[in-house]
Amino acid sequence: MLVFLLLRLTPGDPAAILAGDAATAEQIAAIRVSLGLDRPLAVQFAIWLGKLLSGDLGQSYYFRMNVTALIAQRLEPTFALTALTMLLSVVISIPVGVIAAWRHGGWFDRALMGFSVLGFSVPVFVLAYVLIWLVSLQLGWLPVQGYVRISENFALFLKHLILPAITLSVIYMALIARVTRASVLEALGEDYIRTARAKGLPELRVLVRHALANAAVPIVTVIGIGVALLIGGVVVTESVYAIPGLGRLTVDAVLARDFPTIQGLILFFSAVYVLVNLLVDLSYAFLDPRIRL
Amino acid sequence: MPRNLLIAALLAGFACAAPAQEKVLRVVPHSNLNILDPVWTTAYMARNHGYMVYDTLFGTDEKNRIQPQMVEKWSESPDHRLWTFTLRSGLAFHDGAPVTGEDVVASLERWGKRDAMGQKLMTFVERMDSPSPGTFRIFLREACGFVLEALGKPSSNVPFIMPKRVAQTPADRQIDDATGSGPYVFAKDQFKPGDKAVYLKNQKYQPRKEPPSGTAGGKRVYVDRVEWNLALRDAQSQVNALARGEIDIIEQPAFESYEPLKADKNIQVVNSNPLGFQYMGRFNHLHPPFNNPKVRQAALAAFSQEPFLRAQIGVKDLYRSCASMFTCGTPYGSAKGSEVQSKSNVKKAQELLKASGYDGTPVVLMKPTDLAAIGKLPDVAAQLLRQAGFKVDLQAMDWNTLVGRRAKKDPPQQGGWNMFFTAWVAPDIWNPLTNPAVGALGEKSWFGWPSDPALEKLRDEFARATDDAKKKALAEQIQARAFEIATHAPLGEYVNPLAARRNITGFVTGPGNLYWNIKKN
User: A169 lies in which domain range?
Assistant: First the structure.
């Protein structure tokens, strides 16, 4: 309801946007009527809510498509980009964080801290342009833009997604690596680590089975929180790399004051966020037997 | 030798066996395509989509002359009231149905309810009919001098011809069926709004024999499909993609991109729209201070064009000052009545403002922050107005907020406005009937709503005139009157050439980007 009202209070008229530059005020008014925007807000809200309860997110003003179908059409690129980004981030940053904690104060640890600061500071679009210039234009290894569906050609799908995923994962890697380092560092100071080492366990086993396992809860939490960060980053990344995903759709819908699409997207993102948090909460019990659901 | 022969035979065999590679033209259009009804909206993307899919009765050639397109021949009664048209034989819609006079009549009726020039034409039309499948007639109540200009109108809204069943869609509702008879077939199943629009070569299209010229002449297609990349809208990413050959054409590169584009030996910059665009500042005639013509005159005197063009475009080769409201270099382009602006200076503006009785009411200028093509104009206007003695309230907003706000007739203090800026492609403003800024029907006019019976009387006379010399004289009078009451401020003209890979040839000059005659070598 809040989103519904906020959108209506925002300046901008979807009818005027659709009508084109040379349209008259009368033509715009006619379009407003056809979109139902001339009705009282309470009536508009009741209609939208009624449709929502029956699973219908409404019809996009701008794209002239059912919003559910529109979101479904754009889901794959964003899902693929997000999944690859998370995979890259987790696979790289957790071992790096563990090593940094293990070699606390050494050159590797300092390098990681420097990288973290850089990862947080460099805007996503700047990093994207630098990577495009280097990897695509100078080395010619990967395409500059675009998206190929996984069902069309898997190799091309990966080729088009690697650069955007690297771009997006840098900030995410910085976040996870820092939290991993801090958590593992704390765990390494615990008595059970000393005991494990005293028992003569190999260092790798100490680090993974004892230190990392006990540091997992905050790491998983930050991975969950990072999903929200990813949703923001996806908007910029999809714009620069011309990926027709939900981020790009959000930008288009907001610029066009496409109320049904914006409402549908906010609902969708909220649901994803709630779901991810639920999964994170459930994982606590798996990771730490002391936690009961 | 036998070994060489064997290799040659094998190669020949492979050549025969391999399917011919599909020629795909990959284009980044100037904006997003979301509306597929070029009669319902005036958006240029819908117009360009229309030129792909539909055909027109007449076209406008490179020299701005009206030429027959779907029409084979036509005649006009001596009293100019009955027009009879015969269609070319062999015209067919994409579904195979022949194009008939009934399709034409239905299409013109729908267009006549939406388009400003079409609406004007319909005030003269008594009725239209189709006495036989290949002909149609227009009966006028009284003679008017713009029948062919209206039917060959090259820019929004273009009178595209649709099948009768589609054209019978109410004019206030968008069509759902993109069946046309133009050089391309719209691949509706491959259309992904915000991602990609695909046009396939219409194998059955029969082009005219004449060479292509503007929107007239033979529309020959040399590629198998055209793909509009609707997702690639970041200016720098477009340049990068063109440099790598991932796309073939950028319709409207950012002005700051021309230098790197020209430096790339694989890229050419082509000006296929030499008449280009005109910048315009529009006054709101309903509210103070611009409800006072003397205040508008003072603002006009402050607005010499060069500062606007230099700030906005920056590249000298791409802009020019132009005193005409009807596009310089076109039949009605003249400097008549423009002295107040063309010989302007700050001192004169100050004097005019003092004499106008301006009471210091702030002028609300709307500045779009997300539209690079016009974003600097309000800043220049604000500075020039301040120098002339105006108080200025420069309000920043995104373009679509501006578009919504400019439709409001409320006073500026209650969410209205005093001035906004925009740009028009030449054919939209080169005629006193199509130029929305010189309409002066008060609240029925285009945003800004000027009201001036004298100007409307001249426009009516223009519509009725059938003699070219008289039309030109009337156009000059209209412009002089428009400058006198300061309907708006023309702020100069510019071109925005396309950028393409060097292997792309055959660009056609026109009001937008036309994709026939183009070869991908």
Answer: 71-287
